[in-house]
Amino acid sequence: MTSSVPPLNRIRVGSAPDSWGVWFPDDPGQVPWRRFLDEVAEAGYEWIELGPYGYLPTDPAQLGEETAKRGLKVSAGTVFTGLHHGPSVWEKTWEHVSDIAALTRAMGADHLVVIPSFWRDDKTGEVLEDRTLTPAQWRDLTEQTERLGREVRDRYGLRIVVHPHADTHVDTEENVNRFLDATDPELVSLCLDTGHYAYCGGDSVKLIETYGERIGYLHLKQVDPAILAEVVAQEVPFGPAVGRGVMCEPPAGVPALEPVLAAARGLDVDLFAIVEQDMYPCPPDKPFPIAARTRRFLRSCGV
Question: What is the domain count for the chain?
Answer without folding.
Answer: 1
